[in-house]
Amino acid sequence: MKNSFDFVGWATKNDLRCSDGRTIRKDAFKECDGMVVPLVWNHQHNDPDNVLGHALLKNEAEGVRAYCTCNETEKGLTAKSLVTHGDIGSLSIWANQLKQDGGDVLHGVIREVSLVLAGANPGATIDYIVEHGEESGDSAIIYPMEEIEMYHSATNEDEKKEVAPEPKEAQTKDTANDGDGETIEEIFKTLNEKQKNAVYALVGYAVNNAEEKEGDDDEEDDGSMKHNVFETENNEVNYLSHADMSAILENAKRMGSLKAAVDDAIADGVLAHSIDTTGMETATGHQTYGFNDPAMLFPEAKSLNNPPEWLSRNMDWVSKVMGGVHHTPFTRIKSVYANITEDDARARGYVKGNQKVHEVFATLKRETTPQTIYKLQKMDRDDIIDITDFDVVAWIRNEMRMMLHEEIARAILIGDGRTPGTQDKINETNIRPIATDVPLFNTKVNVTFAAGDDENAKAKKIINSIIRARKNYKGSGNPTFFTTEDVLTELLLLEDQIGHKLYKTEAELATALRVRDIVTVEVMEGQKIDGKNLIGVIVNLADYNVGRDRKGEETMFDDFDINFNQYSYLIETRMSGALIKPYSALTILEGTANSGDH
Question: Are residues 506 and 570 in the same domain?
């Protein structure tokens, strides 16, 4: 095992009391001794790229040790580098089949070891995960919060040795405290920023002194002098002398507080020259009191809406259209009608001795075929990885589905608005817009305004025209009036001769118009049909058929381009759409009345 791993750490420690009160007891994972399990990044099991290598588990007196080896993948080498440089220093395990006695964990099976970022909780945590399938018992992610012990190259390149961990007393107790048992971490947290910088200088001195001693030894061997790791090219950085540091520590013992000793050293100017600010950003403000740029210490702005909210048109009407149409599991629709409204189709009276006349009526047929409607999106994989505050892929897919539905609903109601011949146009022979359909299915109603009409007069004419044209509606049941917010507002503001509102609610107005309800459609605003302003469409969407084959149902696809490291996302459907009942819609237009208009 000597040369078979890159680093080692505690996978879990015995008698570690977790924040939720549970305790890992000795030999809880004894059965895992000698097991080799995957080494994973942050317990992310949903992608094989997150497997960084493997870990050999050894059950010891204090707990379970993990001897970890990184693989040669890009992520494996990156993880090894992060550990080597001290950027990551904690291991964690994922275990299941846990057995407990009260708050004590007595048995479990470790399934993987993960490299994790150091958490804020000073103790371990156990997060329960519900398991399904063949595995039984509870499962947990356990953070021992122990530092990884690195293995560095020995004099023989093929040999590795474990760096001895610092004694527990040096890690946890301050030799210059006042005897109250405070840890160095607890004392350090009481220091202000200036005092912390002074402590950094002390640490810098210690490392510098050790390097100089090593350099003295090496000079005897090869005649060369080691450079201090803290020195800059111009050698302008000053360091605290040994006498100064000794004086500070003596004062700490005498005063019973390292914090107070550092304060005195700063006040006396002992530490003023010792703090290296090379490479640090300098405050740029010009405040003449306190410190000159308080904004530098302001907390980072926090987003109140993750993921970001969509700035979109009002889409309440979209669900009413998509949910109101009739659906068939086939796309090629043929509508056949026989016109028996003409006189030749009427029954006749018989006069004895005369020859009977045969009935004659016309037949009509219309076919509608499907078209594919889609939305395509692309994202760099690097961007997907770097956006960590929310699931950006789910966010993008939601936008694609939302915009696809709006485009289909618009095409059904009034058409997509693109000019004929445009490459991206939704063909109006495949998805037939209600507002522009032929007279057999849709009756156009023109509302004529006089030059001197005010808004009140116009609103009255719209209502009167709709009520009069209602006799031409032959659709199913009670229809819906689709219109704009501006039109609805003017109709609701209609007043009688003494200034009272005629309709207090939309429901009262809908009753007057003989419709079931009124739905405002933002994309109707500014629309023209045959050069006339569109006021609204009256239709029962149950008379409009949307056909989709099973293979043409709405589907989301994704594809990865390995050469450009990009994901492409596609949502599409293949469908047809048309009114299937004659005289089932009314289109209300603002224009000059012509012969045959209502």
Answer: yes
